[in-house]
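Worked example 3 (structure in, sequence out).
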């Protein structure tokens, strides 16, 4: 992977993060609302085929943020629907993202064991 790919990844990933920060600073939306909005945008843009060029250009910078997870869900659902019909539309997204979900659960659980989680006061 050459330095140009790293720069493209940084630009796309940074732009997504900057957009989220601007929305957080200039609106009354909570981080949870922004998270769900980015996920939904990734699903919609992925379903319409508009996220594909962004993902190809930005690589991990577009696929790692939550919008990329939405994109992966939509692509899995589309592929599942093509292969198995309506049932595949529901199961395809989960199959496409199962590795990421399992990793998040495993690492979250591991960190909770290693460190002492505290509630916010």
């Amino acid at each position: 992977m050459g330095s140009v790919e790293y720069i493209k990844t940084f630009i796309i990933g940074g732009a997504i993060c900057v957009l989220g920060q601007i929305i957080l600073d200039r609106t009354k939306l909570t981080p949870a609302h922004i998270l769900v909005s980015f996920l939904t945008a990734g699903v919609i843009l992925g379903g319409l085929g508009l996220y594909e060029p962004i993902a190809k250009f930005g690589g991990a910078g577009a696929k790692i943020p939550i919008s990329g997870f939405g994109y992966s869900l939509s692509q899995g659902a589309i592929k599942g629907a093509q292969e198995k019909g309506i049932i595949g539309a529901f199961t395809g997204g989960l199959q496409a993202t199962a590795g990421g979900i399992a990793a998040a659960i495993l690492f979250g659980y591991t960190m909770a064991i290693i460190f002492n989680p505290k509630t916010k006061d």
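Notes: Residues 3-114 form one domain. The first helix runs from residue 3 to 26.
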